[in-house]
Design brief:
The chain is an alpha/beta fold. The protein is 39% helix and 16% strand. The chain contains ten helices and nine strands. Helix 1 packs across helix 10, helix 5 runs parallel beside helix 10 and helix 8 runs parallel beside helix 9. Bound molecules: adenosine-5-diphosphoribose.
Length: 255
């Protein structure tokens, strides 16, 4: 059923273990384009060029990846949390959020005030990088200094190995610990709210299904239809920032 924010506020108020699951749609109001809306990232770049195999397989594959990174990462670095991120942090502060499972790599949930232990990142985090040979950890900002200095394919200063952002590329293994924890928390949730995801990328898109199967009330807040809409108990077509801000405001009125 198509519903609205006051109904969702009521569900958050009464939930024992509310979990939120976010996608790129929660960050578009911070100026970060999503992937599959018109004009999104995969409208402008071919996802088949940015696979894990291409990155690991050749210098040219890595050069292409870092070329894309030079376009996309500065937008992430400049972005600030929007009303949706702020609302989720407020729900946490009021004890109304068990955790946030996110497909996003932009660190904006943490920047909005969600404690890192409350954010389960299924696709990693773009602000960090690591050498695949010796494990040396770098910040993404350090790597971009090397890129801006003309190093088209940064190598590890310590050992010369391949430096890779701490994000999960297509074809790369998902982080086992985060996936297991996300499934566990989804199965424990009595309210599971998807915000800003097309729910077309697996295995992440299985997480809301686990929650629903385990008995959670499933809510989807998204501008466009998703494949899970028919199985949702409530669908809200709206801007993530507006809807989630109204949910918190709605809870104020009733507390
Ligand atoms: N408010 C609500 N919904 C929004 C907003 C907004 N302000 N902006 C965009 N949306 C919706 C879009 O309609 C779309 O359905 O958010 C959804 C974003 O979907 P995608 O772009 O597919 O992003 P996501 O679901 O996070 O993609 C999953 O795919 O490419 C990979 O690793 C990448 O984590 C990403 C994964």
């Amino acid at each position: 059923m198509i519903g609205d924010a006051p109904r969702l506020a009521e569900l958050f108020r009464g939930a024992r273990t509310p979990v939120v699951f976010t996608g790129a749609g929660v960050s578009t109001e911070s100026g970060i384009p999503d992937f599959r809306s018109p004009g999104g990232i995969w409208d402008r770049f071919d996802p088949n060029e940015f696979t894990y195999a291409n990155f690991i397989g050749s210098l040219e594959g890595r050069r292409k990846y870092w070329e894309l990174g030079r376009v996309t990462y500065p937008v992430i670095r400049a972005a600030r949390p929007n009303a949706a991120h702020v609302a989720l942090a407020e729900l946490h502060r009021r004890g109304r959020l068990d955790c946030c499972i996110t497909q996003n790599i932009d660190n904006l949930h943490q920047a909005a005030g969600l404690p890192p232990e409350k954010v389960i990142e299924l696709h990693g985090n773009a602000t960090r990088a690591r050498c695949l040979a010796c494990g040396a950890a770098y910040t993404r900002d350090e790597v971009h200094v090397w890129l801006e200095a003309g190093d088209g394919v940064p190598a590890c200063p310590a050992c010369g190995g391949i430096v890779k952002p701490a994000t999960v590329l297509f074809g790369e293994a998902m982080p086992a610990r985060e996936m297991a924890e996300a499934e566990r928390r989804a199965r424990q949730a009595d309210l599971f709210v998807v915000v800003g995801s097309s729910l077309v990328v697996y295995p992440a898109a299985y997480i809301p299904v686990h929650a629903k199967h385990a008995g959670a009330t499933l809510v989807i807040v998204n501008l466009a239809p998703t494949p899970l809409d028919e199985r949702a108990d409530l669908v809200i077509r709206g801007q993530a920032g507006h809807v989630m801000g109204a949910v918190v405001a709605g809870m104020e009125r009733c507390s």
